[in-house]
Amino acid sequence: MQIKKPIVFFDLETTGTDTLNDRIVQIAIIKLAADGTKVEKERLINPTIPIPPEVTKVHGVSDEMVKDAPTFHQVAKSLFEFIRGCDLAGYNHLNFDMPLLIEEFARAGVVFPEPDVQYIDVMKVYYHFHPRTLSAAYQLYCHKELENAHNAMADTQATLEIFESQLATHFDEEPSINEIHNLCFSSRHVDFSRRLARDKEGEIIFAFGKHKGERVRDNRGYAEWMLKGGFPADTKRILQELLQS
């Protein structure tokens, strides 16, 4: 591949998945120069907010590990200088890492990214060449071409065959329906459109908008506004049940 300017591959570990309010705890960068040379940098960051224990279990970074690390504000300018003039690459970074990094730079008073940056999302390249379609899954798991695709019965039969192959391929012991359900449907979300979620105490909260994170029981006005708006039926049903309980 011919490149005219360096490409920075990067990944973030954070305090959570909220790109607006969560913070970086670790950043790793590999700068790939036009001549093929690579420069690697890695740093722990003090997020200035607690790292939830369940998040530490995922990436291994604890409050103790970052207590003496610099804050993002302290490293923002040097970090920006290192990646200035580079294109930016990552895995799913357009959906998560980039939005969160933009917020961190903004809080530090640094305008990021530069207007002429080009992006490489390795996940999107992967999905482009390995489509996440029923036909692709059928070929992968059943080693057959799906005939009459988009016919409802043909698609349903293929779905059942794929599931049977998945059970044989990925599970040493026969799983329960509950195990499969938990794999497919996050216990945190309570409606299919993901407008509602559960907090750590199991209380239903708003998962979007200006009241994101607030408990539905504590903001009946917003819930009533949603009931009058163009929200999905299952979301409204759950809200109605909460307001009546």
From TrEMBL:
InterPro entries hit by this protein: DnaQ, Ribonucl_H, RNaseH-like_sf, RNaseH_sf
Keyword entries, A-Z: Exonuclease, Hydrolase, Nuclease
Short name of any one Pfam family annotated for the protein: RNase_T
Transmembrane segments: none
A single GO BP: DNA replication proofreading
Name recorded for this polypeptide: Exonuclease
Entry annotated with the keyword Repeat: no
Oligomeric and partner information: DNA polymerase III contains a core (composed of alpha, epsilon and theta chains) that associates with a tau subunit. This core dimerizes to form the POLIII' complex. PolIII' associates with the gamma complex (composed of gamma, delta, delta', psi and chi chains) and with the beta chain to form the complete DNA polymerase III complex.
Species this chain originates from: Microscilla marina ATCC 23134
GO MF term (any one): DNA binding
Domain Exonuclease: start-end pairs: 6-172
Record's GO cellular component terms: cytosol
Record has Plastid as a keyword: no
Protein function: DNA polymerase III is a complex, multichain enzyme responsible for most of the replicative synthesis in bacteria. The epsilon subunit contain the editing function and is a proofreading 3'-5' exonuclease.
